[in-house]
Amino acid sequence: MAFEELLEDPVIQKYLHELVGPTGMPVAAAPPDGEVTDEELAEELGLELNDVRRALFILYENDLASYRRVRDEDSGWLTYLWTFQYDNIPENLEEEMYRLLEGIEQREEYESDHQFYLCEVDSIRFEFEEAMEFGFECPECGSPLESMENSRLVEAMEWRIDQLREELNVDSEEPEAQA
Ligand SMILES: [Zn+2]
Question: Which of 58, 76, 52, 56 has its CA nearest to residue 67?
Answer without folding.
Answer: 56
